Amino acid sequence: MELKKPWQGRFEKPTLGEVEQYTESLSFDWRLYRYDILGSVAHCKMLAECGIITHEEASQIIEALGEVQREIERGEFTLDPSFEDIHMAIEHRLIQKIGDVGGKLHTARSRNDQIALDMRLYLRDVILSVREGLLNVIEALLKLAKRFFHVVMPGYTHLQHAQPVAFSHHLMAYCEMFRRDEERFCDCLKRVNIMPLGSAALAGTSFPIDMSFTARYLKFDSITRNSMDSVSDRDYLLEFLSASAITMMHVSRLAEEIILWSSSEFGFIELSDAFCTGSSIMPQKKNPDVAELMRGKTGRVYGNLMALLTILKALPLTYNRDLQEDKIPVFDTADTLLSTLKLLSMMLLEIKVKEERMEEAAKTGWILATELADYLVTKGVPFRKAHHIVGQIVKFCMEEGKDFEDLTIEEFRRFHRAFDETVFNVLDLRKAVDRRKSQGGTSWSRIKEVLEITEDYLKEVRHNLLNEKSRYGL
Ligand code: ARG
Hints:
The structure is a single chain. By secondary structure, the chain is mostly helical. Helices cover 62% and strands 4% of the residues. The chain is built from 19 helices and six strands. The strands form three sheets. The chain has a two-stranded antiparallel sheet with strand order 1-2. It has a two-stranded parallel sheet with strand order 3-4. Strands 5-6 form a two-stranded antiparallel sheet. β1 (152-157) and β2 form a beta hairpin. The radius of gyration is 30 Å and the shape is elongated. Residues 25, 29, 85, 111-112, 115, 319, 321, 323-324 line the site of arginine (ARG).
């Protein structure tokens, strides 16, 4: 009789069909097959190196594992959910192929440390791809900022016109967010890249294994220190989900601005047709669906973080089957984040910027009021007083339906004697932008500085990423 369930020795009744369905994870953890096999190869080599199995047996197992991998990739081995999970499916096929020798692979390990290993290997790859996706978004923003370097737009607070800023400055604000995200993923990788295999079910193993061999083979930086923590720890997944949630929050803010900017009210940009859809009823419509879905999918990514936090809450040590539920939120987040970042960089590169419309908007709403107040300050008027005076000028302009530049010098002087002809010099958008020369300000020279710094950062991190990828054979 073929043993599908390794625990059949102790059980009298077969598992209920519904229970199999309810408890299986193969329908979603099948995607770990490559990592599972890689981990098994490493484990097998270690067992042979430590004299726990023979080298002969090890090569037999490793060869058969390679065949199983090829079968899965060619779709020749049907991953039937009654195997329960990817570990058992692969082991089952291995034993089918080479008989009893295959049964030696699971010596000195358990599925509890095996799944921890698989998830860490999987996440390592994902994080490298996410970092690459983030760098592509940063590069796209950088290109846009350079292409539209001199465009002026209204800067907002409370979504009200506040002060004029460079469009490039606005874009570079998002570069800062995505840079922080990239750093967060780098940091998260430190806690992912730790090797748990050998912790076995929970207590470690009595076999004379060498965990550092496995760690070296799989390019892990270190080994977990406590077997009980090792099989129950999912912090590294939480960190990934939380870094992803923060990244998606940034994406959703940018998506929201893109949606606003492409509305007729703003009219600042036009999205490429390739990233929009029409309406089935209103012929004139061009909807920013991709940006809307980026905003919308952020909700699901937040939910995934809450799901795992809740799964882990109050779980006693060590492995509990609840932990199997970690995969769906993690896979879903990884897929969503990676596709979002890819589309975002593509969409950004194709944005058409309506420069005149942006600058036109920047002129409205007495956006240069701060310039006037600062002007009075340079004439010795205390800022608080200057603020009050300019407030009165704005009120006057509103009543008269005028802009600042429509006022005569006599009208200005009615509000304060310090005004003279030079006041008209400050009523210039471009100059107003350029006056903000403080560090991190919107002046042209400061933006140029940041563009250069960001370019250097991109170059350096891309180089590091390439090295890391080749270290892991990617
Ligand atoms: N499928 C399980 C999971 O994803 C693997 C570990 C199962 N261990 C166990 N003792 N049932 O968590």
